[in-house]
From TrEMBL:
Matching InterPro entries: Homeodomain-like_sf, HTH-type_TetR-like_transc_reg, HTH_TetR, Tet_transcr_reg_TetR-rel_C_sf
PROSITE patterns associated with the record: HTH_TETR_2
Name of protein: AcrR family transcriptional regulator
DNA-binding region coordinates: 29-48
Native species: Paenibacillus hunanensis
Keywords, alphabetical: DNA-binding
Chain ranges of the HTH tetR-type domain: 6-66
Record keyword Endoplasmic reticulum present: no
The UniProt record lists the keyword DNA-binding: yes
């Protein structure tokens, strides 16, 4: 594949991400995507096979959930370090690509058939989080009653908190200035560890 072809494919994927985040994937047409990408409409079928396949290609280009969680699991980290590293990576992903985050929220809200595709990219990371929670409880580091509830609380906090900057206009009850990304991540991680009863050993 030539560099020109690769450039056109990336323009199509970026246009898909932009329009799907703004309007929703279902109502976004292939014609609109190609107009935004300045690409011939026939290229979507040629490169991807159709609009639905384009959705997965977009996730494959912009989501790294599978690769980084697999690499992290292979490091064999202790539960606390593993959880901290996982949260930091997920936080960075949500922060770096808010459009993908918005698209995922839309698809889950609609209970779309594309959720099965999304889960192939997101479940490896959530499964690794569950692994660290199980490991920490078995070692007496974490203290919680329900693993499922602890997992739900953590995933909800990671996803919602990482998107807090976009949520402020919708939640007028939040009246503090947004934290810097570093402060945000630091407080989020501390809160998550506290929620599972972790107490940092004294130096």
């Amino acid at each position: 594949m030539t560099k020109d072809e690769e450039h056109v494919k990336l323009r199509i994927l970026k246009a898909t991400r932009k329009l799907a985040a703004a309007r929703g994937f279902d109502v976004t047409t292939v014609r609109e995507i190609c107009r935004e990408a300045d690409a011939n409409i026939s290229l979507v079928s040629y490169y991807y096979g159709g609009k639905e396949q384009l959705f997965e290609a977009m996730l494959d280009e912009f989501m790294l959930g599978r690769s980084f969680s697999d690499a992290l699991r292979q490091e064999g980290l202790d539960p606390v370090t593993g959880l901290e590293r996982l949260v930091a990576r997920l936080f960075a992903l949500w922060q770096q690509d808010p459009e993908i985050s918005l698209i995922l929220h839309q698809e889950f809200a609609l209970r779309s058939e594309r959720i099965a595709i999304i889960q192939r990219y997101t479940l490896p990371a959530w499964s690794l989080l569950r692994h660290y929670l199980e490991q920490g409880k078995a070692q007496g580091i974490f203290h919680f009653q329900s693993l499922d509830l602890a997992l739900l609380q953590m995933t909800g906090s990671i996803v919602f908190s990482s998107n807090a900057a976009k949520s402020y206009p919708m939640l007028p009850i939040l009246d503090e200035q947004p934290l810097s990304p570093y402060e945000h991540l630091e407080q989020l991680t501390s809160s998550l560890l506290a929620s599972v009863g972790y107490v940092k050993p004294e130096a």
